[in-house]
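Q: I'm writing up a methods section and want to include an example of the input and output format. Could you take the sequence below and give the corresponding predicted structure tokens, formatted cleanly so I can copy it straight into the document?
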Amino acid sequence: MIKLRNILQEFDYGRRLFADPDNYDNVRDADELGPVGYGNIWDIETDTEDETHAMELLSTFYQGDFVGLDERKLKILIKSLKRLKTKFPKILDPRTSAEVEKYVYRGATISMDAIKDMSFKLISNDIVFMVPDGFKVHPRSGRPIHSFSVEKYMAEQYVHGKVYDSILDPGRIPIVIHVDANNPNLLFSTNFSSLHSTYGDEKEVFYAADNIIVSRLSVKQDVIRQIYENDKAIDRMSDMQDVYTKLYNAIA
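A: Here is the clean output for your methods example:
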């Protein structure tokens, strides 16, 4: 069981944050920590007790062990790390990730009610919804932190999987959530995450808040076409067929 004192009030990280090579899989040389800002032997240091407990907690999340995740303690840790974001940007600020451009992305399903009255544009092969200012998505997991990718393609893979495996919930639409890369709730650079995550190739960053403030929503035209032309899918979503029909007619 992870013991973590109230780091919201005082988090002891020594001179450097998470600068112990033992934190990183297959990393035993300071030269290999250059991407997170520790490029020589003088940068590394043994973790404090607080950092050790924090890394245990983060590793549980990174490895996808949500059953063993203490979400209350994770929430406390996140609040503390947010305050250190400007001090250790190569670890905590997603904008230091070489791959980050304007947005970060998450594949999800949301209620059709949320988008049925939104206007939309056809941009390349996307249907892009005109999201009102302050529009929020409330993830059903209820967790205080949510995984995003800096690559839109990875979020689209989630959406495609939902459609092609026919895992569609009635009244919901599979969609890609876009969040502005400058959003203050975003945490961790891909430099750091890629050294810990089971899914390092996804180039993960995290949105650290209960609800997600959305900048844009999009779905591939091919996804709508696939759903609409699949009779079984439409049967399960008959209560929202008019919305799918509107989208399908726009791309026909």
